[in-house]
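Researcher: Re-running this chain for the archive, since the previous output was lost when a drive failed. Same request as before.
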Amino acid sequence: MIRLLFYSLVFLIGAAYMALIAKEDPGYALLSHGDWSVEGTLVLLVTALSLLISAILLLIYFLVKTIKFPGKVGHWNRNRKTVKAIENCNKGYIELAEGNWREAEKHLKKSANDSGMPILNYLAAARAAQEDGSSHRRDNYLLQAHKSDPQADIAIGLTQAELQIKDGQAEQALATLMHLRSVAPRHKQVLKMLFRVYQQLNSWKDLENLLPELRKNHIFEHEVLSQYEQSLSKQLMSQALQNKNQGELKAIWNRLPKVTRAEPEMIHFYCQLLLSIGEQELALGLIKEGIKRHWHASLILLYGLAHEKDAAKQLETAESWLSDNGRGAELLLTLGRLSLNNQLWGKARDYLSESLVVTPSTEAFQVLGELYEDQLDDPVEAMNCYREGLILSAQSKEVKRLDDDLPAMIALSVGC
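Model: Regenerated structure tokens:
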């Protein structure tokens, strides 16, 4: 518009100037070529030439516009499609967030090719298709995503593995992740998801082999990784015990880092397995070593369940702990059991009774009840102990149930 006004202003100024010149002296002009000649005023000739040139320029202008018109129409049409695709894309993501899977899939699929970001649309459509219960449509969208951007192999593969894990297809997810690992061996998300799949498949040996990579690439925090390592070691040791492979059981324990082998819970777990296969001396050595490092209730109780060849020496060792560690309920229960092993019925009764005074426990009631029934020939006291033990056990279960239900009760009261 500004350009048109400028040209119009120039034209008017030129016309006014030519009018002033023509008024004073129109001039004379003669054009001749062979037998052909044209004569007239100079003003008329200049005006005619100006009009002719203007007409030619206008003709060229309109020809250019005519040639460019289909392209402009196409550009406008593409813009219109892009705008509509973005609208459908937004609708699709909103439907996806609201859980309207079928509608989300429809909008995302419809807008994929014209939205400018087809891979994101296809990946989101794959999620919607799976939530709608169709793994076939999901895989088709993932294939379309790969075709739209072959360079995004990692992103597409991770999405595929995530959806397969969520759909319970752990073996298919493992195949997907193994392919990704061959492409990107140190990719953190690939390693983390591979860890999850091995857990689902109970593939403990593969998990053990993966742990060094997880530690090297700092996939988890140190404390979290240590917990995973302990849990995995327990699974491997249990599996070795089921397979009756004592050599593998001990080898797994020896492969553990020293700091892990010093953990009271790990010592307790391993020694329980050793006691179950009759490795009393090895278990006792580890238990006593663990107690020296950490005065831990589970190890104290386990010491009372093991049987040393010299029962009197074992009782003497446990009694030596009284002066340094006090008369705790766990130690008193262990002393009661060891007194039973030494057939010291009165001492056993005293230790067990004192343990119940310090902290009542179902175990102590059970052991004391058996002592009254089998050795002291007092069925009434035995029945009293068994009854008190059952009451305590029922109370403990009730407290645990209330603890489990407490969050829901609080939420309900807040809602009211």
